[in-house]
Design brief:
The structure holds two protein chains of two kinds. Chain A has no helices and eleven strands. By secondary structure, chain A is an all-beta fold. In chain A, strands 2, 4, 5, 6, 9, 10 and 11 form a seven-stranded mixed sheet that branches. A four-stranded antiparallel sheet of chain A has the order 1-3-8-7, with no helix packed on it. In chain A, strand 4 and strand 5 form a beta hairpin. Chain A starts with a strand and ends with a strand. The relative contact order of chain A is 0.33. Chain B is mostly beta strands. In chain B, the strands form three sheets. In chain B, strands 2, 5, 6, 10, 11 and 12 form a six-stranded mixed sheet that branches. Classes of the chains: A mainly beta, B mainly beta. The interface between A and B is medium-sized, with 25 and 23 residues.
């Protein structure tokens, strides 16, 4: 394992469902990130948390709700999603959001399918 | 925010040969970092190489090296002696306040 663990690995949900994605890191990092990866498109940065505080929200629809209870855990709560939200959701971490110059450490992602 | 462009959706190379993947970026900042990540079918993004923009010397990691042209805002990745295990999606990324990625290049390695 890389040090960043994401669960579940796969998720199929209906448009009226509520589900959550989980990300956990034990690298001692203080910054965590959610990215959306769609086919043939650049990874889209969704949210940034630094020391548990949200520092960036890139105009993400409110049907995506992040939560960061501590520096080791990050959640993405999902509700009333649309089929176009189907994608690979990647979590990443770094020492802190101003010290990502050694790169981010990524999890293996959750493949989300909205039906 | 910075933008990153990878103009080659797919590339192919013969095993043991050399291939170069292209990347250009746009940023108004003078201090930034550049990266190449590899994403195999396991989906985990793996850091291949990094470059500090204030360093003129091109970064090298074993068979992987970059050609960093700061004035042209170009950051290409050269893979020498290609191996079957190099087959993957390769993403170029630029970091200033946060990390932005290109759309990726799918590399196929032919035996």
């Amino acid at each position: 394992e890389t040090g960043v663990t994401q669960t579940p690995r796969h998720l199929v949900m209906g448009m009226t469902n509520k589900k959550s994605l989980k990300c956990e890191q034990h690298l001692g990092h203080n910054a965590m990130y959610w990215y959306k990866q769609s086919a043939k498109k650049p990874l889209e940065l969704m949210f940034v948390y630094n020391f548990k505080e949200q520092t960036e929200n890139n105009s993400v629809p409110s049907r995506f709700s992040p939560e960061c209870p501590n520096s080791s855990h990050l959640f993405l709560h999902l509700h009333t999603l649309q089929p176009e939200d189907s994608a690979l959701y990647l979590c990443a971490s770094s020492q802190d959001s101003g010290q990502g110059n050694y790169g981010y450490t990524f999890g293996s992602g959750t493949r989300l399918t909205v039906v | 925010a910075q933008t990153v462009t990878q103009s080659q959706p797919e590339m192919s190379v013969q095993e043991a040969e050399t291939v170069t993947l292209s990347c250009t970026y746009d940023t108004s900042e003078s201090d930034y970092y550049l990266f190449w990540y590899k994403q195999p079918p396991s989906r985990q993004m793996i850091l291949v190489i990094r470059q500090e923009a204030y360093k003129q010397q091109n970064a090298t990691e074993n068979r992987f090296s970059v050609n960093f042209q700061k004035a042209a805002k170009s950051f290409s990745l050269k893979i020498s002696d290609s191996q079957l295990g190099d087959a993957a999606m390769y993403f170029c990324a630029a970091l200033n306040f946060d990390m932005r990625f290109g759309a990726g290049t799918r590399l196929t390695v032919k035996p």
